[in-house]
Specification:
By secondary structure, the protein is mainly α. It has five helices and two strands, in the order H-H-E-E-H-H-H. Helices cover 46% and strands 4% of the residues.
């Protein structure tokens, strides 16, 4: 439900109107037809995903159905934050001189 969410596929907000949805879908289909690099992927909380013309058409069809749109809105509004990069590696506290003493540990 998160990766294939129609709002993520189309790259629009959950409160978008029907006309905005149709315009964005037509724009994306045109961009995919012309093989624009920006149209090939879309952002999700689980990272970038490939976008196809079939996925765009399926997203528009899902958002035309009131029940499926409501479910997609709920998932899109309450999705975890989007991952843009890998988290930085944690530093080993043992390698910092005096680290334990600064935290209040006694030898």
């Amino acid at each position: 439900m998160i990766v294939d969410n129609p709002f993520f596929v189309l790259g629009i907000a959950p409160d978008a109107s029907r006309i905005e949805i149709e315009r964005e879908a037509q724009k994306l289909l045109g961009m995919l037809e012309l093989d624009f690099p920006d149209a090939r992927t879309y952002v999700t909380p689980r990272g970038p995903q490939p976008r196809t013309a079939e996925a765009v058409r399926a997203a528009v069809a899902a958002l035309r159905d009131p029940f499926r749109r409501l479910v997609a809105e709920l998932w899109a509004r309450h999705a975890p934050p989007t991952r843009t990069a890998a988290p930085p590696p944690a530093e080993a506290p043992a390698g910092i001189p005096g680290f334990r003493r600064r935290l209040g540990w006694r030898p």
